[in-house]
């Protein structure tokens, strides 16, 4: 009798195993069956918000379910980040992350979530370059000249940013760290104010977004010496990157990408990644992004994870180097 029971059990083990695999893979095969929320940690209207909505529209078409952008501003993006980090890992709550997602951990060690532990990277979507721009009265024409000038006058040159801990602030501090120059940081209440201060001659240097700086560069009120990204900005192709201009290894960009809560099945992550890469790399999407000053840049989840690790490490070094503190 026992032998017969054992034979029967052995016969059913493969069936049970197959059923288990079906249970695991079934959600991925049918996903999505309901609308998807994509949270963005800032107010509506900015380039990041527009980019999120462009992507959401394309994903709605390809996935067959509405992808709805939900703005949850506050705490420098931390409110949206925390909400998604603690959401159900079913693929129906996503984060349209920004550069702040990897800056906040360096500024606030006691965040109630951990970026590497609590998120599953899906794909990078876009990057935006910063321009290293100077007032026309600054007597330099290239990066080497700026470095030489700054070293000859330690602490005299000033650079403006939209505020302490902003992406532009970090771009400036990385420049200081890599060149070993001393410049005085002058924080303003926002990007327009920071740029206006340079145009007015109150400050020497600025790290504005290429989009924001473009009209002033074209009119001669700002002089762009280089851009911060790894590749030249599509809207400012004649201006070299900092790496090309002689500061080897410099790379700093604003960015947006899609993150999911950790634990979302890999099949769902792969489905989302495929849909995002396809959507972002269509000619109409790339053209729409360029109008917002954004350059499309997608990749695998693994590539995005490596990028995030690199950003977290660099930001921690910058905070320690510059002694950056926020209230």
How would you sum up this structure in a few lines?
The protein is an alpha/beta fold and 327 residues long.
How many domains, in number, for the residues? 3
- Proportion of residues in β-strands: 15-25%
- Global morphology: globular
Percent helix: 40-55%
Q: Unreliable segments (pLDDT under 50, ≥5 consecutive)?
A: 5-9
Separation of the first and last Cα atoms? 74 Å
**CATH class of the largest domain, please?**
Alpha Beta
CATH architecture of the largest domain: 3-Layer(aba) Sandwich
Beta strand count: 11
Number of helices: 12
The CATH topology of the largest domain corresponds to: D-Maltodextrin-Binding Protein, domain 2
Strand order of the largest sheet: 2-1-3-10-4-11
The mean pLDDT is: 91
Largest sheet: 6 strands, mixed
The fourth-level CATH homologous superfamily of the largest domain is Bordetella uptake gene, domain 1
Estimated radius of gyration? 23 Å
Structural class from helices and strands? alpha/beta
Helix-strand string: HEHEHEHHEEHEHEHEHEEHHEH
Give a description of the structure.
With 327 residues, the protein is of the alpha/beta class. It folds into 3 domains: 1-26; 31-128 and 254-322, Bordetella uptake gene, domain 1 (D-Maltodextrin-Binding Protein, domain 2, 3-Layer(aba) Sandwich); 131-227, Periplasmic binding protein-like II (D-Maltodextrin-Binding Protein, domain 2, 3-Layer(aba) Sandwich). Helix content is 47%, strand content 17%. The protein has 12 helices and 11 strands. The strands form 2 sheets. It has a 6-stranded mixed beta sheet with strand order 2-1-3-10-4-11, with helices on both faces. The chain has a 5-stranded mixed beta sheet with strand order 7-6-8-5-9, sandwiched between helices. Helix 2 links the parallel strand 1 and strand 2 (67-71). Helix 1 packs parallel to helix 10 and helix 4 (100-107) crosses helix 12 (301-322). The protein starts with a helix and ends in a 5-residue tail after the last helix.
């Amino acid at each position: 009798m026992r032998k017969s029971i054992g034979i029967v059990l052995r016969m059913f083990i493969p069936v049970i195993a197959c059923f288990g695999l079906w249970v695991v893979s079934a959600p991925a095969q049918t996903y999505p069956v309901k609308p998807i929320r994509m949270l963005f940690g800032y107010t509506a209207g900015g380039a990041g918000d527009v980019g999120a909505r462009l992507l959401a529209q394309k994903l709605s078409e390809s996935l067959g379910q509405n992808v709805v952008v939900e703005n949850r501003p506050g705490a420098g993006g931390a409110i949206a980040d925390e909400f998604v980090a603690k959401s159900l890992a079913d693929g129906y709550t996503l984060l349209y992350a920004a550069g702040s997602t990897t800056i906040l951990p360096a500024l606030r060690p006691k965040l109630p979530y951990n970026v590497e532990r609590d998120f599953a990277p899906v794909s990078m979507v876009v990057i935006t370059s910063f321009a290293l721009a100077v007032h026309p009265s600054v007597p330099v024409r290239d990066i080497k000249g700026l470095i030489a000038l700054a070293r000859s006058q330690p602490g005299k040159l000033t650079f403006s940013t939209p505020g302490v801990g902003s992406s532009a602030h970090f771009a400036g501090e990385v420049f200081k760290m890599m060149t070993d120059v001393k410049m005085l940081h002058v924080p303003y209440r926002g990007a327009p104010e920071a740029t206006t201060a340079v145009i007015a001659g109150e400050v020497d240097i600025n790290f504005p977004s290429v989009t924001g700086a473009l009209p002033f560069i074209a009119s001669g009120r700002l002089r762009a010496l280089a851009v911060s990204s790894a590749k030249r900005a599509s809207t400012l192709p004649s201006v070299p990157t900092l790496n090309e201009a002689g500061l080897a290894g410099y790379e700093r960009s604003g960015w947006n990408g899609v993150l999911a809560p950790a634990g979302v099945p890999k099949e769902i992550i792969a489905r989302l990644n495929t849909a995002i890469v396809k959507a972002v790399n269509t000619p109409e999407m790339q053209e729409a992004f360029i109008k917002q000053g954004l350059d499309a840049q997608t990749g695998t989840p693994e590539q995005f994870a490596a990028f995030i690790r690199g950003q977290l490490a660099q930001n921690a070094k910058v905070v320690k180097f510059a002694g950056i503190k926020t209230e």
